[in-house]
Amino acid sequence: MGFFDKIKQGLSKTATAISQVFTGFSEIDDDFYDGLEESLILADLGFETTSKAMDSLRAKVKEEKLTTTEQARQALRTILTAMVQVGDMTLDLSTQPSVVLVIGVNGVGKTTSIGKIAHQLKESGKKVLLCAADTFRAAAADQLEIWAGRAGVDIIRQDEGADPASVVFDAIAAAKARKADVILCDTAGRLHNKQNLMNELGKISRIIDRELPGAAKEVLLVLDGTTGQNGLMQARQFSQIAGVTGMVLTKLDGTAKGGIVIAVADDLQIPVKFIGVGEQIDDLMPFDPNAFAEALV
Prior knowledge:
Elements: H1 3-10, H2 12-24, H3 30-63, H4 69-84, E1 98-103, H5 110-123, E2 128-132, H6 140-151, E3 154-156, H7 164-178, E4 182-186, H8 194-211, E5 217-224, H9 229-242, E6 246-250, H10 259-268, E7 272-276, E8 284-286, H11 289-296
Parallel strand pairs: 1-4, 1-5, 2-3, 2-4, 5-6, 6-7
Antiparallel strand pairs: 7-8
Helix pairs in contact: 1-11, 2-3, 3-4, 3-10, 4-11, 5-6, 7-8, 9-10
């Protein structure tokens, strides 16, 4: 099952609700616009993103003299695709090694996402090294080690409570010695104290810059797609303190409404790079804006 089929399955409830607006009205009038606006807000696009999309749709209908709701559906797909198509959606892995820092609050599927990305990169021929720099949460390194085993990649870890920057230092040394292509680094998922988190990520970044000057570095923020507008708030906070370069949206497999993907990408102009559509190791997929918009609308 490809990206489109999986995301279509995951967003089926939302897509059905939106589709009913297009099939329930024979012409484009105020009632149609009101119904569509409500369905998009309920789909987790949020008020601001929905208003922006609806303004664009009204303008497009007027400019192109669209008359049927089916034409409006096609126009909305184009608008939503453009809203979510921001930045480079591929990982920058242009150096050896490249570094991918993965951040996000606890419980969003951070460690699982790292394991799945490691699997994908290994399948594409990359030599991957996992770094267990979340040393604060009990069993975080154990969980990452399980995923390392599943993906068939190496892992560098220390004891619980160790300095995260020290683990990153060890991982860089190991990556150089083993000629690894990518270091995938798990980090602590704490947001209650921004200053501590900023200090910790800053220290990790300084170690990377010192030991791997000029290395390609990604900072991926993992968000739980079921948290709705709370996900947007998390993204705003993390982007302010961590220099986020891309996002991973997880749990878009039936319970999520999906619109949060568009809200976050459009609000922060940060590209969505991966999207999680299930529990299996191959259920984290590179993001396809066109397929996503088509599945949603």
